[in-house]
Each structure stands twice: as C-alpha cells, then as structure tokens.
Design goal:
Layout (H helix, E strand, L loop, with lengths): L1 H27 L26 H10 L5 H4 L8 H13 L10 H7 L3 E2 L6 E2 L19 E2 L21 E6 L8 H17 L4 E4 L8 E6 L15 E5 L6 E5 L4 E2 L8 E2 H13 L26 H10 L4
Parallel strand pairs: 1-7, 4-5, 4-6, 6-8, 9-10
Antiparallel strand pairs: 2-3, 7-8
Helix pairs in contact: 6-7
C-alpha cells in the first residue's frame, strides 16, 4: 500500500512539473481586453498626410506581421507618413490588392481577417529615413518585394528536419480545453495524415508526458513563449520552425471539428497550416493554399493544394 501511495505521489508531482508552468502563465498573464483586428476597420479611407488615434495600432499590426521594423513602428505616432504608406503598399502587394498605399475598404477588410500569428516571410522593406534606395527593377520604388515564380516560401535560412528524421512523434499539452481532448486528437490526426500523403514524413501520437518531437495544445493570453494570444478572431494559432516543435492554438476561439458554422474556426484547417510551419514552410502568397496566412470563419479546408505540396517537396528535395 505504501509503495502504491509513493508511486501515485511521484506521478502527481511529474504532472505538476510538466503542466503547472503552462497553466500559471496562460491563466494568470492573460491579456485584459485585447484590441481586436476589427479596430483596423475604423481606419478606412485614410491616406498619407492624415492623422488618426488608431494609426499606432496599424503600425504595430504591420510590425507584428513583417511589414515595418521597430524603428519605423515608433515614428510619427498618429500621423500617416511616407514610411507607413510604403508598408501599406507592401501589404497590398503581398495580398494581391490594388496597390495604392491608401487604407481602402479591401485593405482594411483583409487586415481584419483572423490569421496565423507568424509573420509573412519573403518580404523585406527599406526605411525612407536610412537612405536605402536599392533598385530591384520594380515600377514602384517605395517598396521591395522578393519575387519568386512560386508562391510558397520558406523560413529564413531554410531550417528543416535532418534528412534521417522522417518519423515525428507528437503529444498534447494544453492550459485550457475549449474542445474535448478526443476532438483535438482527431483533428490533429486528420491534419497529420494530409501531410503524410504529400511528403516524406510520418507521424505518431504518443502518450501525454512522453518525450516527443512535437507538442500541441491550447493556450490563452500570454503563455510564456513571447507570442501572446489576443482573443477571438484575431491571431488563431502559431507554430515554430524546425526543430523546436511547438504548436499553440488560441483557447479563446470557437473551434469546430465538423464543417464550421458562421463565426467558428475549422480546427483541422488551422492545425494543418501550423504543421506546415513545424515542417519548415512559411506563408504562401496563394490565397487558396493551406499555408496562406489568413483563415475564413465558417469555412472548412481539409486538403493541401498544389502550392503547399510543391513547397514541402521542394524544401526537402535536397539534403
């Protein structure tokens, strides 16, 4: 009896060591009243030379997703300057919008869409203030865009799993449980299966607490990785490039395992997208691709596209 009690106590302590930091970080540091992407809709119609109290939020948004650097984010506050116009043009180009530099309806509507928290890779920018006047042959000298005949992209430096590492294990660790664990397991299994069908990788779920290559789970607010979640229908999830192996879903979202009704998010689609990041793919410029940064509420997407497949095969085509 004493031995059984000791073993149970040890198991409980292991559980606390593994889970408690995530539970504390996620629940105690949750953001209060996070600002919604819908705030951007109030900026419709603005252009260079105008002012608005919400322009600093637009600057932070564009910095967060790869269109402004830190120095440019802190310039001119509420004023719509030349630097901000250049960043807006770059955003419009990347999302196949009319490139005007103005915050027209299509631009603010696009920016307000729920999306992955990872920045849009494959972009670079120049500061109007640092004298960088590099000419890449583009008709518009105010921005640079890294052109590629394909729309898929890789992370800087092309990180990927070692050539011999083709079987990856995964487990779950969550701070909150917005859906039953069996639904998360089912969604993940479907998402991993789609990547197995179209790449060299195989995947297997292992028991909770076991050593694994990948760890998936739900978190809310500031959960300790430097990328806090921000409430429903903003950033939906994020994952990290190889070989860190962490995939986090926002526990504040209304997730659906079935084809989602309006306002709910297809968890299979988002998980499939984030697995692409775990394998080394960045965001695609193809709006039909699973690796496109934005997700449409109320819509299900369960299959990789030719762009996604070409991307993963190209990344691992050479050692």
């Amino acid at each position: 009896m004493a031995a059984n009690t000791t073993n149970c106590l040890k198991a409980f302590l292991v559980f606390l060591i593994v889970h408690l930091p995530f539970l504390v970080l996620s629940r105690c540091l949750e953001h209060k009243n996070p600002q919604s992407f819908n705030t951007l809709l109030s900026l419709e119609g603005l252009s260079k030379g105008q002012t608005d109290k919400n322009l600093p939020y637009l600057r932070q948004y564009l910095k967060r997703f790869g269109y402004l650097n830190y120095k440019e984010t802190t310039l001119n506050g509420n004023y719509f300057d030349e630097v901000l116009e250049s960043a807006v043009k770059l955003y419009q180009r990347n999302y196949h919008l009319k490139v005007t530099g103005k915050l027209d309806f299509d631009t603010v509507k696009k920016a307000a869409n729920p999306r992955c928290g990872f920045p849009d890779i494959g972009l670079r920018f120049k500061s109007i203030n640092n004298g960088d006047h590099t000419n890449n042959g583009d008709d518009d000298p105010d921005f640079l865009f890294i052109k590629n005949s394909s729309l898929y992209k890789f992370f800087d430096g092309n990180p990927k799993w070692p050539a011999e590492k083709t079987h990856l294990t995964y487990t779950f660790i969550s701070a909150v449980h917005p859906i039953p664990q069996e639904d998360l397991s089912s969604a993940s299994s479907q998402a991993f299966a789609e990547w197995t069908r179209n790449s060299k990788f195989t995947f297997a779920e292992v028991r909770e607490g076991a050593v694994s290559d990948l760890r998936l789970g739900f978190f809310v607010g500031d959960h300790g990785d430097g990328h806090p979640f921000d409430g429903p229908l903003n950033v939906l999830a994020h994952a990290f490039a190889p070989t860190y192996g962490r995939l986090h879903l926002d526990g504040a979202e209304a997730w659906s395992l079935s084809p989602p009704p309006p306002g709910q998010i297809d968890i299979v689609w988002v998980t499939m997208h984030e697995i692409g990041h775990l394998l080394g793919l960045a965001h695609s410029s193809d709006p039909n691709a699973v690796m496109f940064a934005q997700v449409t509420p109320g819509v299900a997407r369960r299959a990789l596209t030719p762009d996604d497949i070409a991307g993963i095969q190209a990344l691992y085509a050479t050692p």
